């Protein structure tokens, strides 16, 4: 049974088109006043959109998403501090940097994977700063994990009592809240098949009952 407000949200979402893939059912709207761009959470990386996974879980389109303001690097190093592949010196949606040391550069997908694996030990891979590094990464849409670093355990996914147990969709439609789950149906929690560090209710990400696997926007 869906409460009235949830039914209204779902009904309105069926009328909205994702500006990235142009399909209907977009449940996320840019938080910028006056902007009516809507999109699906899985489409967000392709559209260079940002969702902040804290507080009010605000989302922004490519035009209104937060931007990093970093000084140009003095060194000529043009490699990602994590994967060591080439990066552009200019900061962009895909290329990020550390606000503390100003020198570290990394791909967005690299720093996101590091954040999920590092857990509570997440910090700049170069200067080892946690603040303001962690705060800036949150603002820029990097999803953090509260678990111990994955390298401290033999298993990438910990015991069942540490299993991720909440819906991370930008707009959770479940009347019972993000941590409410069911064994099956629309409120069944589906974990990312790659990192297992993010989850979604089937309905919140428009997953059909026949969908066996799901990947978060980061992976």
TrEMBL record:
PHD-type domain sequence ranges: 1-65
| Gene Ontology CC | nucleus
Q: Which UniProt keywords apply?
A: Ligase, Metal-binding, Zinc, Zinc-finger
User: Which PROSITE patterns does this one have?
Assistant: EPHD (PS51805), ZF_RING_2 (PS50089)
In terms of domain of life, where is this protein from? Eukaryota
Q: Which Gene3D superfamilies match?
A: Zinc/RING finger domain, C3HC4 (zinc finger)
Annotated RING-type domain ranges read 80-127
Q: Single GO molecular-function term?
A: zinc ion binding
Query: Is-annotated flag, keyword Zinc-finger?
Result: yes
InterPro entries with a match to the protein in the record = EPHD (IPR034732), PHD-type_Zinc_Finger (IPR051188), PHD_PHF7/G2E3-like (IPR059102), Znf_FYVE_PHD (IPR011011), Znf_RING (IPR001841), Znf_RING/FYVE/PHD (IPR013083)
Which Pfam families is this protein grouped with?
Answer: PHD_G2E3, zf-HC5HC2H
Q: Please identify the protein, giving its name as recorded.
A: G2E3 ligase
């Amino acid at each position: 049974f869906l409460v009235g407000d949830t039914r209204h949200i779902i009904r309105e979402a069926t009328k909205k088109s994702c500006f990235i893939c142009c399909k209907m059912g977009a449940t996320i709207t840019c938080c910028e006043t006056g902007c009516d761009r809507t999109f699906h959470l899985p489409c967000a990386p392709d559209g260079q959109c940002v969702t902040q996974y804290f507080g009010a879980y605000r989302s922004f389109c490519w035009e209104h998403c937060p931007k990093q303001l970093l000084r140009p690097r003095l060194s000529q190093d043009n490699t990602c501090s994590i994967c060591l592949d080439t990066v552009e010196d200019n900061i962009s949606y895909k290329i990020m940097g550390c606000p503390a040391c100003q020198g570290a550069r990394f791909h967005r997908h690299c720093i996101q994977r590091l954040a999920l694996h590092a857990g509570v030990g997440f910090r700049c891979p170069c200067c080892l700063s946690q603040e303001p590094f962690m705060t800036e990464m949150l603002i820029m849409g990097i999803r953090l994990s509260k678990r111990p670093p994955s390298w401290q355990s033999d298993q990438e996914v910990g015991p069942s009592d540490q299993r991720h147990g909440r819906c991370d969709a930008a707009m959770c439609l479940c009347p019972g809240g993000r941590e409410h789950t069911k064994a099956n149906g629309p409120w069944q929690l589906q974990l990312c098949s790659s990192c297992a560090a993010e989850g979604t209710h089937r309905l919140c990400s428009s997953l059909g009952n026949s969908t066996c696997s799901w990947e978060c926007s980061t992976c």
